[in-house]
Amino acid sequence: MENKPVLWIIIPCYNEQEVLPVTAPMFLKKLEFLVQSGRVDEQSRILFVNDGSKDSTWEIISRLSEEDPRYIGISQSRNRGHQNALVAGMMEAKDRCDITITIDCDGQDDLNAMDEMVDQYLDGCEIVYGVRSDRDTDTWFKRTTAQGYYKVLGGLGAEVVYNHADYRLVSSRVLREFANFKEVNLYLRGMFPLVGFKSTSVYYSRKERMAGESHYPLRKMIALAFDGITSLSIKPIHLITGLGMIVALISFVGVIWSLVTHLLGGTVAGWASMTCIICFLGGIQLLSLGVIGEYVGKTYMETKQRPRYIISERTWEKTREPRRKEKDEN
């Protein structure tokens, strides 16, 4: 009989005490279905990653793990952000399972898409991206900015999957190669395409959040957008260089024009025009310095080689560490 893959569903959690009791049974029900349908092994697990929550999220995860061994959890020593929480979970899982599926805790992503994800893996795909088929649940502002961002990121040369967030299946083979990516500034949506291997996409509709409030306000979304651009592309530096050359050329033409006008005796004191020129050049310079500063700052953080995450607790350390099921020889 052919061996079934061991699946770990990885769910980052930050202050999710309101939604976790609602969605945890849903994740377990989906895992049971995948096992009963013969897609995955019964040793599959649901791994919650507590990202330094300040509420009772970790206590809920610990209680769930005591009630059912299919729930397991790890807790970071402090809040490190969504991307680092995902990496912590995947690195914890890569040697204990065959495939992982990362998904948010809020219940917005369609769990039924996991069926097709696993089917695609069984058909030979190593990475399966969950892609939103529409953005009907988003506000006009979020929908417009998100779609525009993906287009800008693609235009800057970054390889990303349009309308894909962090709902994806990744095989342990890919994760072992991904472990060689050591950068601290993470943008997983653009990093996994760099790993390569056979990949595909499944499409689903996103729902409204089931409980609690979103922990990704506009400020964090903008920060993630900047991380994506500066972590995956150096084209902004090239654009600044090109813009600098254009501005320098225009300025040179302006100098020649000023000299010719002065020699012809047609100069007139123009405070407004001079102010506009100074403001324009000053704005271009400050913007350019800001973009360059982003890259310098990221380089500074990378040279420190600080750990991306530190795990302070594991639920199974209270009993025994889960081992990957030994495979029977065919």
* Estimated radius of gyration: 25 Å
Unreliably modeled segments: 325-330
Name given to the CATH architecture of the largest domain = Alpha-Beta Complex
Strand content: 5-15%
What is the number of helices? 10
Shape: elongated
Instruction: Give the C-level CATH assignment of the largest domain.
Output: Alpha Beta
Helix content: 40-55%
The biggest sheet amounts to: 8 strands, mixed
Number of strands: 8
CATH homologous superfamily heading of the largest domain: Spore Coat Polysaccharide Biosynthesis Protein SpsA, Chain A
**Helices and strands: which structural class?**
alpha/beta
**CATH domain fold name of the largest domain:** Spore Coat Polysaccharide Biosynthesis Protein SpsA, Chain A
Describe the structure.
- It is a single chain.
- The protein is 48% helix and 14% strand.
- It is of the alpha/beta class.
- The chain has 2 domains: 7-142 and 162-216 and 307-318, Spore Coat Polysaccharide Biosynthesis Protein SpsA, Chain A; 235-304.
- An 8-stranded mixed beta sheet has the order 7-5-6-4-1-2-3-8, sandwiched between helices.
- Helix 9 runs antiparallel to helix 10.
- The protein is elongated and about 90 Å long.
